[in-house]
Amino acid sequence: MDQKFVSSTEIEEARKKRAEEWKAAYERLGEKPPEIEEEYDPRTLYEKLQEQKMKKEEAFQEMTRFSNLIHRLDEDEIDFLATLEHEQRGKEMEKMKKVEEELEEFRRAAAKADEEAVPKLIIQPETISTAPIKPSVKKDAQRMILANAIKIPSRKRSLNNDDTNSSNSNEQSKDQKRSKLDSSSSNETATSSTSTTNNNVTNNTLASLLAYSDNSSSDESTSDDES
């Protein structure tokens, strides 16, 4: 025998369909359909109550589904998170201290290196300046020979300069004397010219006076003759 499995949902749907058909038939007749008696349920009261309770819980969970996504922390979880945060802060503080210590060591090493580098820079020019100063006998002898060779023409040059200076001074003195003579001769010519001009002026004045006196005497004689 073939047995077909039927679910409860299918049974419920068939029942609802039958009830609707009975209701439509009574409405055509204009009568009120009778109340459907509940089917016999062999389950106990506890089972029925448990089923109702489960249905209510499912409905409540469906309503509060989004609110369940937010998890509320317990006291134990809060304490655990607080201790974890405290440990993380302690680790971060230790890292910061290590970084500061390393930076301080680096600064000290850099300052020490600078202090060691400064004297080296000061000593280097001294070593450079003192290193080439090494006198040799050959160089000193050559320098002495060159100095003696240079001194002789320098003396000759000084004597020649003295001779030229003396000759120049003699020529200058001669030129000064010539200029003095020229100036004195020019002064004499100027004085002679002034004296000649003065003599000419006096002669002219005397001649004019004599002429005037002659004219006056002739005028007087003519006036006497007329009288």
Automatic annotation (TrEMBL):
Transmembrane segments: none
UniProt xrefs under InterPro entries: FAM192A (IPR039845), FAM192A/Fyv6_N (IPR019331)
Annotated localization: Nucleus
Region described as Disordered: spans on this chain: 110-227
Main location: nucleus
Keyword presence, Nucleus: yes
Cellular-component GO terms for this entry: nucleus
Keywords of this entry: Nucleus
Skewed-composition ranges (Low complexity): 161-171, 183-220
Start-end of Basic and acidic residues biased regions: 172-181
FAM192A/Fyv6 N-terminal domain mapped to chain residues: 5-107
Pfam family name, one: FAM192A_Fyv6_N
Protein name: N-terminal domain of NEFA-interacting nuclear protein NIP30-domain-containing protein
Organism from which the protein derives: Gigaspora rosea
